[in-house]
Amino acid sequence: MAGHRRTEVRGDPADPAEAQPEPRNLRRIKGEVQRRWGIVPLIDMLKEAVLRTGCLDAVTSVSGGGSLSVEVLAERSW
Predict the structure, then answer these.
(1) How far apart are CA 41 and CA 49, in angstroms?
(2) What is the pLDDT of residues 20-52, one digit of tens each?
(3) Structural domain for 62, as ranges
(4) According to the UniProt entry, which residue ranges have a biased composition of type Low complexity (predicted)?
């Protein structure tokens, strides 16, 4: 496949990672987010994060296209 680079995988990818303990304050953080914002769809949070941070500037399209501005993409996704 043109443009595809194979990367070496170390270890056995079939081995599941060990479960990590839950961070100490995770439940408190989740509770506070729920109290402040209620139920907000994840897509709305992602769109807001993209608009505020400009993180899409660091990403390129797989197809080589991507000629739409972030503002146009945000408007179309509402």
Answers:
(1) 13
(2) 888 899 999 888 888 888 887 878 888 888 888
(3) 39-77
(4) 14-23
How much is the pLDDT for 28?
Answer: 93
Interior angle at CA 22, CA 16 and CA 25, nearest 5 = 160
Is residue 62 situated within a structural domain?
Answer: yes
Q: How many domains does the chain have?
A: 1
Q: For the chain, state the CA radius of gyration.
A: 19
User: Measured between alpha carbons, how far is 76 from 70 in angstroms, rounded to an integer?
Assistant: 10
Exposure string over 17-48, b if 16+ CB within 10 A, otherwise e: eeeeeeeeeeeeeeeeeeeeeeeeeeeeeebe
The span from the CA of 63 to the CA of 50, in Å, is 20
Length of the chain, in residues: 78
